[in-house]
UniProtKB/TrEMBL annotation:
<dbReference type="GO" id="GO:0006355">
    <property type="term" value="P:regulation of DNA-templated transcription"/>
</dbReference>
<keyword id="KW-0238">DNA-binding</keyword>
<feature type="modified residue" description="4-aspartylphosphate">
    <location>
        <position position="53"/>
    </location>
</feature>
<protein>
    <submittedName>
        <fullName>DNA-binding response regulator</fullName>
    </submittedName>
</protein>
<feature type="domain" description="Response regulatory">
    <location>
        <begin position="3"/>
        <end position="117"/>
    </location>
</feature>
<dbReference type="InterPro" id="IPR036388">
    <property type="entry name" value="WH-like_DNA-bd_sf"/>
</dbReference>
<dbReference type="InterPro" id="IPR001789">
    <property type="entry name" value="Sig_transdc_resp-reg_receiver"/>
</dbReference>
<dbReference type="InterPro" id="IPR011006">
    <property type="entry name" value="CheY-like_superfamily"/>
</dbReference>
<dbReference type="Pfam" id="PF00072">
    <property type="entry name" value="Response_reg"/>
</dbReference>
<dbReference type="GO" id="GO:0003677">
    <property type="term" value="F:DNA binding"/>
</dbReference>
<dbReference type="GO" id="GO:0000160">
    <property type="term" value="P:phosphorelay signal transduction system"/>
</dbReference>
<keyword id="KW-0597">Phosphoprotein</keyword>
<dbReference type="InterPro" id="IPR016032">
    <property type="entry name" value="Sig_transdc_resp-reg_C-effctor"/>
</dbReference>
<dbReference type="InterPro" id="IPR039420">
    <property type="entry name" value="WalR-like"/>
</dbReference>
Amino acid sequence: MVRVAFIDDDRMLLDGIGSWLARDGNLILEGTAHTVNEFLGKNPHDVDVVVLDLFLSDESDPADNVAKLVEAGFPVLVVSVTPQAVHGIDVVAAGASGYLTKDNDLGTLSNAISVVARGEMAYSPELAFAWTRDTRPSKPKLSAQERAVLLDYATGLTLEAAARRAGVKVSTAKSYLDRVKAKYAQVGRPAATKLELASRVREDGLQRESKGSSD
């Protein structure tokens, strides 16, 4: 069973989602909230995937919302009524594990939730199409944790040592690196090996930025 929480300001959706999940058989609803702060304020623990609406009524920034949830340890699947899936690139760059528009059926949503729960990326058709049309600069947005582990690992530390410096488990550090690799792959810049990661660090000036932010 995959334990799911929904953050959405659509009251009808929140009221009805529990009965749909009960019919699915593989998903169980662990909670709902109207904002990210409300969700985090409940001190949630037993949640495998958070399904987050792209635009909430509190006018919070979608990328910031994703970053908050990811930093708190929750895999995030973003859903939206917005057909312009370019927003999906932004939230994935912020750490989301996938993006779906709400015109998909519930079966597609269920499958995407299961994919994210396995620690994989939900490559929806909308997201794939947006990537092919994206002409913005190809420097991905990395979270503070992703950048810290990337810099330590790419500049010579082992994964175990990078994890210790970041104060996280080795498995968590690996998930940060996997996400970094996925973000670079999404912008057409290979980063599958340690050598390639080191090249991306140099190309993007990440070491200089890190020193500047600590001054």
